[in-house]
Write a structure and sequence with these properties.
2 copies of one chain form a homodimer. In chain A, 77% of the residues lie in helices and 1% in strands. Chain A is an all-alpha fold and 370 residues long. In chain A, strand 1 and strand 2 (111-112) form a beta hairpin.
Chain lengths: 370, 370
């Protein structure tokens, strides 16, 4: 992953220079826009950068340049893909800023979420009206700003491509991703709030649809495809990247679901059991409900989504989910999906160095602890 | 304005066909996304379409085609500009959806705002948790969706241009507009909530900056420039369009400020005195504060922004603002700005038909009652 870390640095440098240009626009409008600049930078430093990495390796897989990102001379060739990877990270930051409002999350990566930062700015400055409402309003606008910027950064990258058909296909992939993940996010809140209107036998299917559109396509398949399309990849190459990306994306999110219930707060940066308090209707919950007797299922349904759950209740729910065998079933699903992903690489017309790296990323994202 | 109405029809047709394509994506994901489709259409029908009209006339002014939008044969030539005009309307709908959350507005054009529509959907379906929170969350996502779509529609239009430099310049104008209006909206809520931290002598300057970035550039100057750039307009042409657009945009917003306080609810679709209950710190308020004695100014400051203001209080505030001469001063400013706008057209290297139409639009937007 040394290769990966170096790329993460290149992406960060690109993000920083892009934000420098945007802050000069903000400064030309007024000095009191400083929080928009400061907080956008804060949400664009750090993070795991998985989307950027998948985008890069999709590109390398299809172009087979065996490109060495350590060599100075090639920086120009790398500019389109680094910009596209950086654009995905901007889009993701914008989505998280809005998601945290929607989920009423106080924290992000162990630090305050954007609306909480603005809320604090308001309270400390002693402005009028409610600090929490200012926090939400300002965070909606910050998300909108970064959403627009993600688009500009992608365009800057695609403008450097001489292959115009590749640029158009890459743009279409990004657009589709943007619509699908927003729809997936809507389905997610719908599932949380209307699951009781659907039969017990439909819960798994609902969770699967959320996982597909909100997570698997968005976090893995689309970034890989975007990279592959920027490289001007062939139809069989794109098909292999998607065949790898979709199951791996499902595994990625299933791991996330386990971490949301059982993760260590010190490692994830989110309170342990956070998904239980939020009442997320994940695959893990759907599977647990299928396995539990009706009494235990009713108790799970009753407690799930109660923001006031205490430590003892969280531990009891964790125990219930574990003991019914749901965790083992999800671990089995993760294993199966990762195997499906790996199988898609075997005879794929993709570069060997990328295949090796994608195989290693598959391990990382499916076994991660944060 | 018959010419104008015909254009409005062309823009609506373009919006409808674009939304048809997007709803087929939504349908492929799931039938329960129907509200996203329905409500996006609702916020994209009707409205005054001033931005679309300015965009078209900026194009006509710079291209001087003397184009007849009634003639069937020319539809292909018109496609880029109609798509760009439609994209501005999509962007505007997205901004309004988010603005109504921020301003906690219950209505838009006399009908429920987006977050209220989703709130009602939730309540009627008997879903879990709070209907108002679902309303806000779903409307944030709907705004994000339409924001992304505005961008796609602009791209579809610009892709048809053979003049690539013109396409790039048009895209840059749209991007700059997007950043500036979002920053302007942030400055607007900041002005509402932190005006008391600034000196009495700074209030007019603060209001002027909001009016410039949130309204004047966004509603008039940028649409005109976008159209002019799509036509491949020369620097003197663009300069003339901006010289007309910025002062007219200021006049447009000053009229809006008057309507927000004195407008007829039946005509504006917003409750009369709405801006007073919302506590908007407009130029009208800044001017009134300068003119009022300290006791009356303190009373204005105290009442402004109280959502519970009753009819009698609204009438008293209207009377105070009127009697101090603030309305006359604003009417004088509108007249001056419209004169400045008209002056910019006199020797401008723009087509005569467009000059005549822009002159007529100047009258419409500065004298409108809704």
């Amino acid at each position: 992953m040394a290769h990966g870390s170096r790329l993460v640095d290149l992406v960060q440098t690109r993000i920083d220079s892009f934000l420098d240009e945007r802050s000069s626009i903000l400064r030309s409008i007024g000095t009191d826009l400083e929080p928009l600049d400061e907080f956008s930078r804060r949400f664009l430093s750090g993070g795991k950068r998985f989307r950027a990495l998948f985008c890069y390796w999709g590109w390398e897989a299809a172009s087979g340049t065996g490109f060495d990102p350590f060599a100075d001379g090639d920086a120009r060739d790398l500019a389109p893909i680094v910009s596209a990877a950086a654009a995905l990270e901007l889009f993701h930051a914008a989505a998280l800023i809005h998601d945290d409002i929607i989920d009423r999350s106080d924290t992000r990566r162990g630090a305050p979420s954007a609306h909480r930062l603005f809320e604090r700015t308001h309270a400390e400055a002693g402005w009028l009206r409610r600090s929490d409402e200012f926090g939400t309003s300002a965070a909606i606008l910050l998300g909108d700003l970064v959403l627009g910027w993600s688009d500009e950064l992608l365009d800057e990258g695609l403008a450097l491509l001489t292959d115009r058909a590749a640029a158009r296909a890459a743009r279409a992939e990004f657009n589709r991703m943007r619509t699908e993940v927003t729809a997936g996010q809507y389905l997610d809140i719908l599932a949380e709030q209307s699951w009781h209107r659907r039969g017990d036998d439909e819960q798994r299917e609902i969770a699967e649809r959320v996982i597909t559109f909100k997570a698997a396509k968005y976090s893995v398949e689309a970034p890989l495809a975007l990279g592959g399309l920027i490289a001007g990849g062939s139809a069989p190459q794109l098909s292999a990247l998607r065949g790898f990306g979709l199951p791996l994306g499902i595994a990625y999110q299933l791991r996330d679901d386990l971490l949301g219930v059982f993760g260590d707060a010190d490692v994830t940066g989110k309170p342990s059991g956070d998904d239980l308090r939020e009442g997320k209707r994940t695959m893990l919950i759907a599977v647990a409900r299928e396995r539990l007797a009706s009494g235990a299922r009713a108790l799970l349904d009753e407690l799930l989504g109660d923001p006031a759950l205490d430590e003892a209740q969280i531990r009891m729910l964790q125990r219930t989910i574990l003991d019914c065998g749901a965790v083992d079933e999800i671990e089995g699903l993760i294993e199966r999906e990762v195997a499906n992903a790996r199988a898609a690489l075997v005879d794929a017309p993709l570069s060997d160095v990328a295949k090796a790296e994608l195989g290693s990323l598959a391990t990382t994202v499916s076994r991660r602890t944060s």
